[in-house]
C-alpha cells in the first residue's frame, strides 16, 4: 500500500499535476561522453515533455534521434537566453512541460539556464531537476583529493593576466579547487597554475571522462604539466582540473611571508617582540623561535 502511494507520487512528479495549471520545467542532465550514462528517468522525461529547450538544437537533436524522439525544440544559449525566456515561460504557462538540456552534463553548470530557472521559479512554475552526469562531480569522485569542501570555479579567464589574478585570489583557499578547461588553453593554464600556486601543489587532471580515451594525470602541478607536454594527445579533449587546497597552517604555501610580515609589523607597533612572536605563532601555527627572529629583523629595519 505504502509502495503504491510512493509510486503514484513518483509518477505524478514525472508528469506534473493533472488539470489546467502551468507545465513543469525539467532540468535534465545528459551524458558528458558516454551515452550509457543517460538515466532511464531522463529518457522518460525527454520522451514525455512537449518541448525541449537546448543549447545547440543540432547537437541535442542527435541525442533525441538516438532515443527515437522527435520534439519541437527551442534554441537557448548564452547569447539569447534573456530573449528566449518569454517564449519558454509562455509554453510553460500554456500548460506544456518543457525539458532544458545542454550540450553535455548538467544544465546551468558552466552552461545556460540560470535566467530561465530563476524567472520560472519567480513565476511560480514548478522546476524539477533530473540529476545525472556532471564533469566536475565525475572528476572529483575519482581524483582522490579531499571532497568534504570544494570550490568549483568554472573556467578561468581566457587571458593570462586575468587568469593569473583569478589564481592569485584562490591561492590561499583551503577547499579543493575544481576548474574546467578547454584543450587549446590547458597547457597555458597549467603553466600559470604552476607559477601562481607553485609547482608542488597537488593536482589531478581528468581528460575525456567517461569516453574511450579517459585519462587521469596526477601528481604535483609541475609534474602534471611536464607529463601533458610530453604526451602527444595531451592537449586534446576536454579537461577538469582538481587542485588540492592550500595548507591549513605552518609555513606552507598558504601563509605567504608577506602576510605574516604584515601581521608582525602591526603587532610590533604595539607590543614587545617576544609577545608578538608568541601571538603570531598561535595564530599561524608557525615556529615561535623563527617568528621571534623574523620580528627582530623587521624591528631593526
Ligand atoms: N554542464 C557541463 C557539466 O555538467 O559538466 C559542463 C559544460 S562546460 C561548457 C564544458 C566543460 O566541461 C569542458 O570544457 C570541460 O572542461 C568539462 N567537461 C565536459 N565533459 C567532460 C568530459 N567528458 N571530460 C572532461 N571534462 C569535461
UniProtKB/TrEMBL annotation:
HAMAP family, A to Z: 16SrRNA_methyltr_I
EC number: 2.1.1.198
GO MF terms held by the record: rRNA (cytosine-2'-O-)-methyltransferase activity
Annotated family: Belongs to the methyltransferase superfamily. RsmI family.
Localization in the cell: Cytoplasm
Keywords: Cytoplasm, Methyltransferase, rRNA processing, S-adenosyl-L-methionine, Transferase
Catalytic activity entry: cytidine(1402) in 16S rRNA + S-adenosyl-L-methionine = 2'-O-methylcytidine(1402) in 16S rRNA + S-adenosyl-L-homocysteine + H(+)
Organism: Marinobacter pelagius
Major place of residence: cytoplasm
General function of this protein: Catalyzes the 2'-O-methylation of the ribose of cytidine 1402 (C1402) in 16S rRNA.
Record GO cellular component, one term: cytoplasm
Higher taxonomy: Bacteria, Pseudomonadati, Pseudomonadota, Gammaproteobacteria, Pseudomonadales
Record carries keyword Hydrolase: no
Keyword rRNA processing: yes
Protein name: Ribosomal RNA small subunit methyltransferase I
Amino acid at each position: 500500500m505504502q509502495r503504491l502511494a510512493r509510486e503514484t507520487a513518483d509518477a505524478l512528479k514525472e508528469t506534473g499535476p493533472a488539470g489546467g495549471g502551468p507545465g513543469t520545467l525539467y532540468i535534465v542532465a545528459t551524458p558528458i561522453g558516454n551515452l550509457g550514462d543517460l538515466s532511464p528517468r531522463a529518457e522518460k522525461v525527454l520522451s514525455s515533455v512537449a518541448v525541449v529547450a537546448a543549447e545547440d538544437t543540432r547537437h541535442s537533436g542527435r541525442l533525441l534521434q538516438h532515443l527515437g524522439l522527435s520534439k519541437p525544440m527551442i534554441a537557448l544559449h548564452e547569447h539569447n537566453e534573456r530573449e528566449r525566456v518569454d517564449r519558454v515561460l509562455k509554453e510553460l504557462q500554456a500548460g506544456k512541460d518543457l525539458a532544458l538540456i545542454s550540450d553535455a552534463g548538467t544544465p546551468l553548470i558552466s552552461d545556460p539556464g540560470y535566467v530561465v530557472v530563476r524567472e520560472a521559479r519567480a513565476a511560480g512554475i514548478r522546476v524539477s531537476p533530473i540529476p545525472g552526469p556532471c564533469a566536475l562531480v565525475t572528476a572529483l569522485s575519482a581524483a582522490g583529493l579531499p571532497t568534504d569542501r570544494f570550490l568549483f570555479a568554472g573556467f578561468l579567464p581566457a587571458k593570462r593576466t586575468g587568469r593569473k589574478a583569478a589564481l592569485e585570489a584562490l591561492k590561499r583557499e583551503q577547499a579543493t579547487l575544481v576548474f574546467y578547461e578547454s584543450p587549446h588553453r590547458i597547457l597555458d593554464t597549467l603553466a600559470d597554475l604552476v607559477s601562481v600556486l607553485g609547482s608542488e601543489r597537488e593536482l589531478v587532471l581528468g581528460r575525456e571522462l567517461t569516453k574511450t580515451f579517459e585519462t587521469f594525470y596526477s601528481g604535483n602541478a609541475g609534474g602534471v604539466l611536464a607529463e601533458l607536454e610530453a604526451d602527444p594527445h595531451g592537449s586534446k579533449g576536454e579537461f577538469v582540473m582538481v587542485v588540492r587546497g592550500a595548507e591549513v597552517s605552518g609555513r606552507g604555501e598558504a601563509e605567504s611571508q608577506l602576510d605574516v610580515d604584515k601581521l608582525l609589523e602591526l603587532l610590533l607597533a604595539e607590543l614587545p617582540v617576544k609577545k608578538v612572536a608568541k601571538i603570531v605563532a598561535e595564530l599561524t601555527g608557525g615556529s615561535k623561535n623563527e617568528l621571534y627572529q623574523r620580528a627582530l629583523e623587521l624591528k631593526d629595519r
